[in-house]
Specification:
This protein is an all-beta fold. The chain is built from no helices and 18 strands. The strands form 4 sheets. Strands 1, 2, 4, 6, 7, 8 and 10 form a 7-stranded antiparallel β-sheet that branches. Strands 11-18-13-16-15 form a 5-stranded antiparallel β-sheet, with no helix packed on it. It starts with 16 loop residues before the first strand and ends in an 18-residue tail after the last strand.
Length: about 270
């Protein structure tokens, strides 16, 4: 479907943020659960290697998320063949580092980010806190206006027996943010509102089995909309399991280019 304007030709503004690369290599068969699924087995304290598309620009954001049923979190990240110091692993209240027991399994998600990744990185060397099968997501984002910095984060836990789950409020200070949302429950999410769902091989918006999902909003505008996750497999007689999730937002210095004035307008005299 396409629409046109009879009022003139409008040139859209340049988007401040762009998603440069996205990869979730462990999603070839979403119905294969650990330990038999296409995941990476990581021993506690031992480096696991995650191949990623080569980072393409110095100063870009590189974001990493991990999901598992081992109650394990990201402990450290390094890069190869190019060094990439400066990783942050959020932890504590209101962050992406979360775990809950769901159907006797220790579901966990965590994240890490580097605000100024160098170009030429093709592998992430990740250390996890516990031994288990891991699924990872890595994405690279760029800004045309200036340096990227952390803006806000929040999470929720324990929302039970609900068909629609609303993400936490992100109290951002930037006028336009790059936002990432994570969601977990047994059965996963059928999708979301407002946010794009990255393509994971054969697994829709799930990056860990059919249980943990990711959504991205590259340019939020001044007010970050809350995402509404559609809870999978909900019925009155078979309510879904408990859920948890988080959101994190990044801002950039500078100001995005305003849209150009319209052209092709004709004066009408009465």
């Amino acid at each position: 479907m396409a629409f046109k304007s009879s009022a003139g030709i409008f040139t859209p503004p340049t988007q401040e943020f762009s998603l440069v690369n996205y990869t979730a290599p462990n999603t070839a068969n979403r119905y294969q659960q650990p330990p038999n699924g296409p995941f990476i087995f990581c021993s506690a304290g031992v480096t696991c290697s995650l191949p990623i598309p080569a980072t393409s620009g110095s100063g870009h954001l590189l974001f990493l998320a991990a999901g598992n049923e081992a109650g394990s979190f990201i402990s450290s990240v390094t890069c190869s063949p190019v060094a990439c110091p400066g990783w942050t692993m959020p932890s504590g209240a209101g962050t992406c580092q979360q775990t809950m027991t769901i159907q006797s399994n220790g579901y966990a998600m965590s994240c890490a980010y580097n605000l100024s990744i160098p170009s030429g990185v093709t592998s992430l060397n990740i250390t996890m806190s516990r031994t288990g099968s891991e699924a990872f997501v890595a994405l690279e984002a760029s800004s045309v206006t200036g340096a990227i910095s952390f803006d806000a984060q929040n999470n929720f836990t324990g929302a039970n027996q609900q068909e629609f789950i609303t993400s936490p409020v992100l109290n951002t200070s930037g006028s336009n943010d790059f936002v990432i949302q994570l969601f977990a429950n047994a059965g996963g999410s059928l999708g979301s509102e407002f946010y794009a769902l990255p393509y994971n091989i054969a697994s829709f918006n799930y990056f860990f089995g059919a249980n943990e999902s990711i959504a991205i909003l590259p340019n939020s505008g001044p007010t970050v909309p809350q995402i509404t996750w559609i809870n999978c497999c909900f019925t009155v007689s078979n309510p879904p399991s408990v859920t948890f999730g988080s959101g994190v937002a990044f801002k950039a210095s500078g100001t995005a280019t305003a849209p150009s004035p319209p052209t092709g307008l004709a004066a009408v005299v009465h």
